[in-house]
Amino acid sequence: MNCELYDDLLDDYVDGVRATDHRRDERFAAFEHHLAGCTGCQALVADLTSIRLAASTLDAHIPPPRLWATIASSIEEQQRQPWWKRQLGGAFSAWVPPAVAASIALLLVAAGWNVWQQGRVETPQQVGTPQPEAESVPAEQHYEQAIAGLQQLADAQNGALDPETRAVLTKNLAVIDRAINESRAALAQEPASTLAQESLLEALETKVALLQDTVALASDTGGTPDEATGAAKELNQ
Amino acid sequence: MRTADLELAARCRAGDAGAFEELYRQHARRLFSLVVRMIGSVDDAEDLLQEVFLQAHRKLSGFRGDSALGTWLYRLTMNHCLDHLRTRQVRMNRATESLDEEGAEEPIAPAPAVPAAVSRLDLERAIKMLPDGARAAFLLHDVEGFEHREIAQILGISEGTSKSQVHKARMKLRMILRQ
Hints:
heterodimer, A: mainly alpha, 10 helices, elongated, B: mainly alpha
């Protein structure tokens, strides 16, 4: 019966979408002629029409009233966060796979260990002269070293990422760089400010995590995971 | 329509508390139905729709009015749904893969026919068995009433792919409903 000749017209016929040009109009007429004598196609058209009709009358699912209250309260909570955290948003945390989180934890433990070790060595020379910024400086240096290493690795593997992901990561790095610069400016004005120190370290920590993400994402999409793991180990040492 | 969208988006960006609620009231009901049918769970749909609106709130600054605000929201929602399904890896594909072959071999099968009045319950059950891509296109076209051009924007596919996915979905539903 040559039913397959009209496959491409079937859905338009069921949807009531008619011909857009003369040639298609002729084919529609041929299909209708075919349909008049083909019980198989008649059954198919009837079935698809029933499905379409039923689909258009399905009941709506109503969202519970509490949903808006939850959303509104989450928005309020978001607005209380620092601007750069809001900018990074949920997408940032969603990117952190458990393995990367473990790497970050290792990196931070290693940085903390180094800070503690340096503190132990330097303590005899610093007795009686408490300096608020003394602790943060080595930690900052370690973060900077980690960032430099990861940045190099991320640059090398950047090509493995798709342009959209690369653009998002670049944008997020710019946001976090602004936060770092602002924290540094605040610290320059008030070197003893614990808040400014914490803010700087937090921003640096976020940048480390973001670069770890970049490297992990590049590895997932065709980069070299061994190289990334190796570099992470190197940084931890 | 587009101007109204831009105005509403601008009010949201300016921190007008009522504006975002207005946006929610305009679209939440249809989006919730879509999400429930996409992921098959009312509880998960609540969580997912909450994430969608929180992301929409953060991303509204990037809304330029290239598409209708509704289409933009549908796109965010479908991205979340498809991500959710990929992550959860609870796919219905396995159940319908064998139907693929049967469908390809006998598109015009003999009786029994689909009942003239398809039960909504049966149809809801059958929709759950569709592959993710076909389900998304079918829900947007046959349930939500979008045109293929709009579905192409929402799902980031071509109009041709949207048409073939809807066709695939209908043929599979027919097979399921005839059983």
